[in-house]
Amino acid sequence: MPETLTTQATILITAASVTAELNGVNEIAKDMTLGVMNAKTISHRAGESAKGFQPITDYIEQVAREVAQSVVRISGGASVLSRLAVSYHHSGKLLTLYRRVLKDAEDATHVASLIPVITMLSQEAQKEQEHFVRDLESLVRQLDAMKNTIRSSKVISTISRVEAANSDAFRKNLEVVADDLESSTEKIRERVQRCHHQLSDVIALVQREDVS
Amino acid sequence: MKSTSIYSEKHQWHVFGRDPKKVDGIVDTNQYMIQSGDRTLLLDPGGIEVFASMLTAVLHHVRLEEITDLFASHQDPDIISSLGLWEQALPHARLHTPWVWEGFIRHFGSKKIEYVPIPDEGEILDLNGLKLRFIPAHYLHASGNFHVYDAKAKILMSGDVGAALEEPGAPMFVENFERHVDKMKLFHQRWMPSNRAKQDWICRVRELEIDILAPQHGRLFKGEDVQRFLDWFEALEVGLAIPEPASDTAEAELEAVASS
Q1: Is residue B4 scored above 90 in pLDDT?
Q2: CB-CB contact of A113 with B65 (8 Å)
Q3: B→A interface, C-beta within 8 Å
Q4: Which domains can be identified in chain B, with CATH numbers?
Q5: Which residues lie below 8 Å from residue A81, measured CB to CB, with a gap of 6+?
Q6: According to the per-residue pLDDT averaged within each range, which of B16-20, B22-26, B100-104, B168-172 is highest?
Q7: CA A165, A166, A170, A175 torsion: positive or negative?
Q8: pLDDT < 70 positions in chain A
Q9: Do A104 and B52 make contact, defined as CB atoms within 8 angstroms?
Q10: Cα angle: A183, vertex A184, A186; to 5 degrees
């Protein structure tokens, strides 16, 4: 990200970007659900020759549902990120402002009365930073859980390709289902990976900031 | 920020303003402070942009814990948008403000401070034995608006009444009333919306003994200039500083509509 962006701007952009990526993931999950309905119809028509394919469709359906649920949870967290970014920025800015007054007022008779205020603001800013990092790390953990779901989906797409090969009459149709699953899985994986990187970058950025 | 003592006996009045560090493009403001024993009241403490300078100036006179009360004559940002910053340092202070504005002023980032709503008829604040009167000045210019009168010091802090928009570094007091009129005429015609409210205020204020009339912008009036100002303001038609309607064009348009 460009060096000229403030931490707050970077966080707000990240929150918007993560939300957009997750919306994309949600769309893919919806497509997966539609694909499963199609796959179920095909395997039903194929009958005995696609017997091994039928439990796979149930699993794909489950994956799509889990992905959609994760997206809802993580999107909620990402939208809170914007609010936290403003609050985090505000506490840091207050501290900077009061420190400026401390410097400007160094010859003022009663400047010492500022010190307890600055100590309190510094403690609050540190708490705000810790809270913020905790929330970011929680989002990253949720993304990790989603990555695990996606990883097992990739295995299923490989199995479904094998099962498709066993179904002579419907082989081509089931291969298309397997291709779609593989492609959707890959797209979701890429998007989740990008979210993961962006949030990890923000954590590093916030942790680098000295608010003490 | 320049700090000037305008009364110093058992209690003290200070005015802060003419800030050389003020950001260009924002209107200059006068902030006031009354110290009475171990209690201090800040009157119209100003906007976010002047907060740092104002706090720096105040620390030359009082400890933060001695600032027990804030007063906001009305809800404008140049009056009180610094509230969210002040309350970090003054968590135990109370804000006296017209009751109509409380919910609006809270938009200035205020979470902790105690609000003391001033009823429409005004009231008295006892600042360590010093009786300060909140004088109604509604519609001058805000619909809920108060001035502060100190009968002991004979000072009326008059908010936007008496205000003038001047060049940076203008003197603190009016030196030539006639020449000063030009600097405040348009401001009063435009910002003061009601002749009736103005007249009501004039009647109320003429009953007070005033040595210094202290507005929130521009120069302060003292001595005979106070009465000169009241006479001038009484005679001034306000609420009219808007462009005249282009009557010829309007009539032509009306005729066109009527004949169509």
Answers
A1: yes
A2: yes
A3: 51-53, 55-56, 59-65, 85, 88-89, 109
A4: 2-259 (3.60.15.10)
A5: A11, A14, A15, A18, A135, A136, A139
A6: B100-104
A7: negative
A8: 1-5, 212
A9: yes
A10: 65
What 8-state DSSP symbol labels residue A114? G
Residue A99: enclosing H or E segment and its boundaries? helix A54-104
CA distance A198 to A201: 5
> Long-range contacts: B206-213, Cβ < 8 Å, 24+?
B206/B230, B208/B135, B208/B149, B208/B151, B208/B156, B209/B151, B209/B154, B210/B149, B210/B154, B210/B155, B210/B156, B211/B153, B211/B154, B211/B155, B212/B6, B212/B7, B212/B153, B212/B154, B212/B155, B212/B156, B213/B156, B213/B158, B213/B162
- Chain A partners within 8 Å of B64 (Cβ): 110, 113-114, 117
ipTM above 0.90, yes or no: no
Q: In this structure, which amino acid lies at residue B5?
A: S
Identity of the residue in B56, B89, B109 whose CB atom sits nearest the CB atom of A108: B56
Contacts of B88 in chain A (CB under 8 A): 94, 98, 117, 120-121
The angle that helices A54-104 and A115-166 make with each other, rounded to 10 degrees, is 160
pLDDT reported for residue A3: 47
**8 Å CB contact of B60 and A105:** yes
Give the best residue of A101, A114, A120 to mutate against chain B (max B CB count within 10 A): A101
User: Which tokens sit at A153?
Assistant: 């989906």
Identify whether the C-beta of residue B107 lies closer than 8 Å to the C-beta of residue B87: no
